[in-house]
Design goal:
Elements (H helix, E strand, L loop, with lengths): L9 E10 L2 E11 L4 E5 L6 H9 L6 E6 L2 E2 L10 E5 L10 H11 L4 H14 L15 H13 L5 E5 L7 H18 L2 E6 L2 H7 L2 E6 L2 E6 L1 H6 L4 H6 L4 E3 L1 H8 L5 E3 L5 E4 L8 E13 L3 E8 L2 E8 L5 H5 L5 E7 L4 E2 L3
Parallel strand pairs: 3-8, 3-9, 6-7, 7-8
Antiparallel strand pairs: 1-2, 1-4, 4-5, 9-10, 11-12, 12-18, 13-17, 14-15, 14-17, 15-16
Bound molecules: adenosine-5'-triphosphate.
The site of adenosine-5'-triphosphate has 12 residues, from strand 2 and helix 1.
């Protein structure tokens, strides 16, 4: 086994997992770097969990190879891989207290008690649960249970930590708080995290890089800004955030090329009345078909040249009365030409 800092933590080489006719994972190639926070993002059924299960060794590829730090592990059982998994449902032992739950992996390895206690306390500090060792899981909130699950998975210092929708059961506020914490814990421990989610905002908040899955294949791998600002396909543009796709004749008239392009709703400026074009701006006239007032911002649905555009504007000065009266009005939409992104398919 060769290993240096350039050896990817995980490498997929043409990995497929078929269940009869269902191509759950289809010839996926992928490299995840050592110490990366890497997310697998995609809609339900796109193959993310199957990929995760194959990395863990709970499932095997029908064809292709999986490497961990250069070693082909395609046929190794889970316990021979230096990997741990955190699941959405925590899977804590209900009869054991928090401290014993966290130290469980060390007990199995027959680590002496004093050492076990020391490392368990360190883990409690890491996940900000200092002083909770004696509690039972039933005496904790959902977010606290998830932290215990994380501490338990990290205590053995695995090379790779897999997280399967770990925040899925938490309410939005707690979820957002845990996103920030998870990321900071990952940076502190330096372990490669592979995170499965169908929530694009979550993936964008936490990841160094993201792989966007669709139907067993990877549509795009890139940093959050790559994925958001330069979506490689219409699927990515639509799945990661909201996007306006313009193609054919209208695209040609606006940009000189009939290749489909995407423009994000927040990049479009909306002006009531007809206005005039400015340098480097692409603009067209339309009419407001619908208005949704969302407190912080307003979402307008504007029809222009036969295309329905979604436009988002922050409610800096306008009130709900102002924005709701916009329905039916003529408007000019404009955006800077640099904010247009060409999409492949
Ligand atoms: P979710 O977000 O809903 O968990 P996912 O992206 O993780 O979805 P997978 O669980 O990897 O998707 O499933 C991919 C496809 O493989 C789905 O069509 C699923 O029905 C199918 N599949 C997964 N496991 C099995 C199995 N054991 N037998 C048959 N089909 C399976």
């Amino acid at each position: 086994m060769t290993m240096n800092s350039n050896t990817p933590a995980v490498r997929f080489e043409k990995v497929s997992r078929h269940f009869g006719d269902v191509k759950a994972v289809d010839e996926v190639g992928l490299e995840i770097g050592d110490g990366e926070f890497f997310s697998m993002l995609g809609p339900s059924g796109s193959g993310k969990t199957t990929c995760l299960r194959m990395i863990a060794g709970f499932d095997r590829p029908t064809s292709g190879h999986i490497y961990l730090y250069g070693q082909d592990v395609s046929n190794l059982p889970p316990y021979e891989r230096d990997i741990n998994t955190v699941f959405q449902d925590y899977a804590l032992f209900p009869h054991m207290n928090v401290g014993d739950n966290i130290a469980y992996g060390l007990m199995i390895k027959r680590v002496p008690k004093a050492e076990r206690m020391k490392r368990m306390e360190e883990m409690l500090d890491l996940v900000q649960l200092t002083g909770f060792a004696e509690r039972k899981p039933s005496q904790l909130s959902g977010g606290q249970r998830q932290r215990v699950a994380l501490a338990r998975a990290l205590i053995n210092h695995p090379k790779v930590l897999l997280l399967d929708e770990p925040l899925g059961a938490l309410d939005l506020k707690l979820r957002q708080q845990m996103q920030v914490e998870l990321k900071s814990i990952q940076k502190r421990v330096g372990i490669t995290f592979i995170f499965v989610t169908h929530d694009q905002e979550e993936a964008i908040t936490m990841s160094d890089r993201i792989a966007v899955f669709s139907q067993g294949r990877i549509e795009q791998v890139g940093t959050p800004s790559d994925i958001y600002e330069r979506p490689a396909s219409a699927f990515v543009a639509g799945f990661v955030g909201t996007s306006n796709l313009v193609s054919g004749e209208v695209a040609k008239r606006l940009t000189g090329s009939d290749q489909t392009f995407s423009i994000r709703p927040e990049k479009i400026h909306i002006e009531f009345g007809s206005g005039k074009s400015e340098k480097d701006m692409i603009s067209l006239e339309g009419a407001v078909r619908d208005v949704i007032y969302l407190g912080l911002y307003t979402r307008y649905l504007v029809e222009a040249e036969g295309v329905d555009f979604v436009v988002i504007e922050q409610n800096l000065k306008s009130t709900s009365m102002d924005v709701l009266s916009a329905k039916g009005q003529k408007v000019r939409l404009s955006w800077h030409k640099d904010h247009v992104s060409r999409v492949g398919g």
